[in-house]
User: Fold this.
Amino acid sequence: MRLKNKIIGGAITTASALSVVLILAIIIIILVVTIIGGKDKLTWEFLTSFPADGMMKGGIFPAIYGTALLVIVMSIAAVPFGTITAIYLTEYAHEKSWIAQTIRFAVRTLATVPSIIFGLFGLGFFIKFVGVGMDNWFMGGQLRWAQPNLLWGSLTMALLTLPVVIVSVEEAIRTVPRELREASLALGATKWQTIKKVVIPGSISGIMTGTILAVGRGAGEVAPILFTGAAYYLATLPTSVSDQFMNLGYHIYVMSTQSSNVDQTLPIQFATTLVLLMLTFSLNLTAVLIRSRLRRRLK
Amino acid sequence: MKEAKIVTRDLTLHYGLKMALNSINLHIPEKEVTAFIGPSGCGKSTFLRCLNRMNDLIPSVHIKGEILIDGLDIYQKKIDVVNLRKKIGMVFQKSNPFAKSIFENVAYGPKINGISDKKKLTEIVESSLKNAAIWDEVKDRMHDSALGLSGGQQQRLCIARTLAVEPEIILMDEPASALDPISTGKIEELIFELKKKYTIVIVTHNMQQAARVSDHTAFFYLGELIEFGKTRKIFTAPDIKQTEEYITGRFG
Assistant:
């Protein structure tokens, strides 16, 4: 019996160690390959200039700019909505009520939907339904909103990242001690005043973590914006939410599959990948740091 | 005995199916200190939290009977709980300042009551801190975080925060149980000063404390009010044997 336990224990330990090594190896290989392939190309000029010569040369500034706009508009939509939902779930809904259970079930389900489905949903709902409706009502049938643009791409991405925001904010709200809520209520504050002045300020780091994680996720996903806003190439930067935009992830896809000479643009692809990796890594690292500080406070 | 500020009639409280308070009848006199004593779990804190309806926050709590404050039943449907709590301040066992500056902690109550005039707020904060006997210790660092104060200072800050709302009654739930003897002494002196203006109800584990600060003492045991009377009498010649046994330390 003892020997059997030892064997099982040993096997589990070995398997865990192997998977850790494997994961680390994959990360290192990805990093090393992209760094070697892209390091010569990655210059200040590459980051700040437009693609040139049919995207065979030049930089990726519009893709960086478009990605930044995408995550900003996405955050403006996802963070307040997610925060309000989290506040409702923690402060107002009874834990066991059917409406709270339904919302929680929906959030969990939303988190497992493949990202391309969000893209198709965005196309069907935002562009074909909302966009067409807006054009008919406000534009007199003229085409303006019923096509891919920054707004629809960002909103589609917001749907995808909403669960991340909700879960982070909920977790943070639960760390606000009951004693502080009671102190506020005992001073004659209403429930809403208590939420506004004690609960939300107390969970600000969780709201930040959720935002950063959502931004990190949104910056890296391509499928949701494939049909809803990303452009192959634009000669000018977007100036309105009804403009299309370029995007880092989509740019990689375009360069590696649609380019007239994939091999020649390989350094550009690697350098773009490196930019995207650094962006998402640093965002996630920041989120992890904030979250660990939050957990320490909890103890 | 002075006029009763708080009167309870057959107050019974259940947590789910479990009875925590059984038919409590009590007259708490105005502008005096009433202490609740008794062993852990006897219902004294639960009873205190009925007086400002803090138990409303716990969904499983059911209450029967009446609590009259100035003759008005506070569990009536038409009672505005928020206004009620402005009239009845509460100081908690664990000091619980907000993660804000000392000034903002004390100004919290007046601000939610709609006072926004900077000068008025400064006046209220200063007088509240003075009345809570902490002004001299914090006057030079009003805009530092309240979390940097010592435990005893934090608790006096919480008292100042309560005073800033100008309540008539102050409920104290073991306010000194986490403090060292010197801080405890300061809180007790403060209670002595405060009773000139406020009706004070204090829950305490510390029998000497009850004897020192209170005018009246109520002894609770297993959810029942066993005995209530002048503190001097309760501590020297209680009518009921259980009270005597508890006070002399034979159980509890």
